Amino acid sequence: MPEPTLDVTGWTCPAPLRETPRIVMGHGGGGALSAELVQQIFAPAFGGDILAQLGDSAALTLGGVRLAFSTDSYVVRPLFFPGGSIGDLAVNGTVNDLAMSGARAAYLSCGFILEEGIETSVLARVAEAMGAAARVARVEVATGDTKVVEAGHGDGIYLNTAGIGLIPADVDLRPQRVVPGDVVIVSGDIGVHGVAIMSVREGLEFGVEIESDCAALGGLVETMLAVTPDLHALRDPTRGGLAAALNEIAAASGTGIALQERAVPIPPTVSNACAILGLDPMYVANEGKLVAFVPRAHADAVLDAMQAHPLGAGAAVIGEVVEAHPGMVVAHTALGGTRVVDLPVGEQLPRIC
């Protein structure tokens, strides 16, 4: 009798218990555990209507000027990977969070937490990468801070960046504007960054080097807004991948999202690597992609503009917003069935950003 074959393409790491008195790695994964920290600890402690919006960046009005304000921390391992480094991530990640509010980033802060014993040459490489990324993104690192922790109490370098940018007066990007009939567009291949990190971390070879998609998306967003300022929402699907980003929008807008699974652009290298590693590409992080919710009347023109931009050449329509199953994301499979694309609980790939 032949041995049964195992299909590992849908495997993921075991999910941590939801009832836990201690922090686990999954709390940093951008999924359900992360959301519980925010909803049960941070939001009640801090309060405030602005924080309650839970966007990639906070939209503020200060002195009559509309600003976007965002902060993020980076603990990626390894510090350098194909296509980028922790320095590139720190700049591009914050620039992208601001861009998801329609803002053009103006200034960044940078905080370095250094582990005693790290080589100054490594620190110099990271700083140089940050400077180069900032120049490409047309943003200035205006202030910063440095702290050192004892050897064994860090992991080389941790970074925090915060940024501010101006939001145009006619732009209003937020999940609450998403309505049934909106077209869902992703700007290109998904899962590339997470797989690039894992390939280096685990010493895996897939026949071709997989490079991170790390990039600043401000220019792409400006191109989209030039077509119409009436985009409804944008998200960069970083931690938790495309699945987490879509679930967040569905929950915040009270709508359902229907995907065409075959339309989601997943390159063969990522698909094959995920099959080997037991990962689902929908949950793997990206650092140079966005997902857009666009009114149907503008969808074709926005898609054309995205595809004409270097960072949106692979843009594709992957689904639509629907009235059915509010708060849920459902994918129509190649076999004619459907499956729920749920918010991840744990984290498939820790320490990737």
Automatic annotation (TrEMBL):
InterPro entries: HypE, PurM-like_C_dom, PurM-like_C_sf, PurM-like_N, PurM-like_N_sf
Domain of life: Bacteria
Pfam families, sorted: AIRS (PF00586), AIRS_C (PF02769)
Signal sequence interval, chain numbering: none
Example GO BP: protein maturation
Domain PurM-like C-terminal, chain residue ranges per copy: 180-325
Residues of the PurM-like N-terminal domain: 56-167
PANTHER family from the UniProt entry: CARBAMOYL DEHYDRATASE HYPE, HYDROGENASE ISOENZYMES FORMATION PROTEIN HYPE
Family to which the UniProt record says this protein belongs: Belongs to the HypE family.
UniProt-recorded name of the protein: Hydrogenase expression/formation protein HypE
Source species of the chain: Streptomyces gilvosporeus
Lineage of source species: Bacteria, Bacillati, Actinomycetota, Actinomycetes, Kitasatosporales
